[in-house]
Amino acid sequence: MRKARLKGLKIRQLTKSMKEKSLIPINKIGQRLRDIREAVGMTQKQMAKRLKVSQSAISQIEENRETSSLGTILKIAQTLGCEIMGAAVSKESLESIIKKRAEIAAQKTLNRTFATMAMEKQTPSDDAYKYQLKKLIEELIENPGPELWEE
What we know:
151 residues, mainly alpha, 434 Repressor (Amino-terminal Domain), 2 domains, 65% helix
């Protein structure tokens, strides 16, 4: 009786989460698919047979031990009557990422330029360096491109 109540609670929680389209980290997708499979009463063997893959492949996917193609994950979800929705979320704003990369790229560019000028005994002042750095950062932020990611 207690086991049935726990299963019912799990089904309600999963249903609520799915209805609300709650996001989960991609590294938890296998666990979510397993939870849904178990909630609907399907075994790994039954899932594998429907998808024409081995049961161990399903096990590895559910335990996030195997890197699976998006196609396989979509097929598993479809077999369970679900769909996979994705979202790319950033830990910080895109503006902040661009600004940090622009600062790094601008410093590298100016350091190379100023090193060459120093060899020619034409080293500009610190104020000139700071001014040029600020201008270059602003330009890179205004028009971000691949130069932000050059190593």
